[in-house]
Amino acid sequence: MPEPRLATPADAAEIARLRSENILSEPLDEAWLTTCADQLALRLQDGGDARAYVVDSPTGGLATCALGLVHAVLPAPKYPKGLAVRIHAVATDPTQRRRGYAKAALAALLDHLEHDGVTLYELYASDGSAPLYEQLGFAANPALMRMTRFPAVEGNAS
């Protein structure tokens, strides 16, 4: 099995593609893929808030990615460095599944983040991916809630 490697800004377009094609309910169009790839490339640079591990596909491109976005939280005994991560995307090309790539990439990412002092890890899991995350130590949390808010459009009185 190919070893996971730390992603570089040059991997951003492939990570955005894997996320779009395999995670999002509607794949992104080319303009949004470019926007995501450009932003991710900046965030994967030294000093950026993105960390990712990838597995190269034997046919070119990436077979798998595991992407986390690190953010600050107030320090506490369980978060002494005040660092948390949201695992933003774990995706595998359908032709490369069932080879252990996602587990290997995510395990490498978690080890890297732990070495950086991250102690709080969050993610959203589908029913199909939950067993993988549970194997790596994640547990369901019924208290987690989510909301998306869009700014009101001017001239639109509601």
Describe the structure.
The protein is an alpha+beta fold. Helices cover 29% and strands 22% of the residues. The protein has a 5-stranded mixed β-sheet. The protein is globular, with a radius of gyration of 17 Å. The mean pLDDT is 93.
Provide a compact summary of the structure.
The protein is α+β, with helices and mostly antiparallel strands.
Instruction: Find the structural class using helix and strand composition.
Output: alpha+beta
Share of helix, binned: 25-40%
Q: Mean pLDDT across all residues, rounded?
A: 93
* Spatial separation of the terminal alpha carbons: 56 Å
Uncertain spans: none
Order of helices and strands: EHHEEEHEH
Count of helix runs: 4
Measured by DSSP, the beta-strand proportion falls in 15-25%
Using the CA coordinates, give the radius of gyration.
Answer: 17 Å
Report on the biggest sheet: 5 strands, mixed
Any idea what the shape is? globular
Number of E-state strands: 5
Biggest sheet, spatial arrangement of strands: 1-2-3-4-5
